[in-house]
Amino acid sequence: MRDLNPLVGTPEDPEKYNEMHKEVVNSAYEIIKLKGYTSWAIGLSVASLVSSIMKNTRSCYAVSVSVQNFHGIEKDVFLSLPVVLGENGVTHVIKQTLTEAEINQLKKSADTLWDLAQFTQTHTKEVEEKIGAENAISHSRFQQTNPQCHDCGVL
Question: Which residues are in the Lactate/malate dehydrogenase C-terminal domain (predicted)?
């Protein structure tokens, strides 16, 4: 894509792929808002993944994989990247040529997930000590903007 349109994904992109991306991302929320659920989408996605594995089609999917050592990410976190999926699962991650801005966004996503995972582990231990392990599993609901548990206020 970048060879055909070097500005793809940027605000200067004459084809406005940035806007299309936002529409695609928000479409699921729109469906949920209108219907109350996403219907068959998740089931169809899982069926497609299973079919690719069972039939060894070696098709391309965006699935969560460890991104450690990709594009300078040092932490062991999982993000969705394009991969080839076959009878042995993920055979390889498809190499992408990313701009510096895209690499920075990817690193920021990895850092956010890492921080959330660390917070969750710490919070789970605190909650287990406070209310017991048997109650801790269904306990935690977090605010995205301020990661604080709604139920106990533990940071």
Answer: 15-114
Per residue of the chain (155 residues), what is the pLDDT tens digit?
A: 667 777 777 788 888 877 877 777 777 777 777 776 666 778 889 999 999 999 999 999 999 999 999 999 999 999 999 999 999 999 999 988 899 999 999 999 999 999 888 887 777 777 667 766 666 555 555 444 455 555 555 54
Would you mind telling me the total number of residues written for the chain in this entry?
A: 155
Cβ atoms of 136 and 127 closer than 8 Å:
yes
Q: Is the dihedral of CA 149, 151, 153, 155 positive or negative?
A: negative
Q: How far apart are CA 120 and CA 140, in angstroms?
A: 9
User: Is there a domain that residue 50 lies in?
Assistant: no
Q: Is residue 83 part of a domain?
A: yes
Domain count, the chain: 3
Q: Which domain holds residue 86?
A: 56-96
Q: Residue 51 domain-assigned?
A: no
